[in-house]
Amino acid sequence: MPNGGELLRKLRLERALTLEDLEAESGVSCRALSNIELGVTRRPTAGTLNAILAALQHCAPVSMEERRAVYIAYGHHPPCPLPTGAEIAAARAGWRGEYGSDYVPTYMIDVSQRLLAWNGVAPRMVGLHPRDRRTQHFENATTIDLAFGLAQRFVEIENAEDYRCSFVDTLVRELRLYATEGWYTPCLAAAQQRYPEFKRLWEMEHPPPVSPIGCPVPLKLRLPGYNDALIFCRVKIPFVGDPRFQTVVWLPVGTTTWRTWTEKMVQV
Fold it and tell me: Is 113 left (phi over 0), alpha (psi -120 to 50) or beta?
């Protein structure tokens, strides 16, 4: 894996920029740029990297994966701005091609927990047909909305209290890395104002993680017309090499749920 200087030199040459060109765009002197690329400067400031990457971006897009690699190479925590509309559209297109036909409930979120896309069977997890007009309620929703109000409009959650505690524990661990980002405080403030129970759980002391991924407490759903509760375990996985996007997969747990899901729920 190339070091930070090699990465920045590669990005500059890909844009056919000289050091002088990059100095004019970034405001960082040629000597300083050269020292960074050659490894003489071991740890440029985050501000300097911001200026260089902004100048490179002005000439041609720099991917989030490339940006993260540069910051991490120098020991800085990489910034994590919310994705733009164009970035969301591109991620949606790729996500639907890869996950749109999954037979288990699956959806895509961004780092602020916005629900951005879902596959055809995801609405069935809350008792809705994929073509039901009420699925529009899930547009512009967040995972916090799902856990604290939206899902309960359509289905009974048997273990709502335990699940919500586990959900918030997981969210605290995931979001604390982004506490300095501009979107962090407004996102959480809006959720706490909307859901007092979320606010209470968020402000509690949270134990060390039980599981490194997902939400360790399964969700028990009781759908109309079914005698037994359906049980799902939520697992998150990265998507498209951009850590701001994640795929959330709801895996059926236990023989009863698997059988019910495959025999009844997936059939359109």
Answer: left
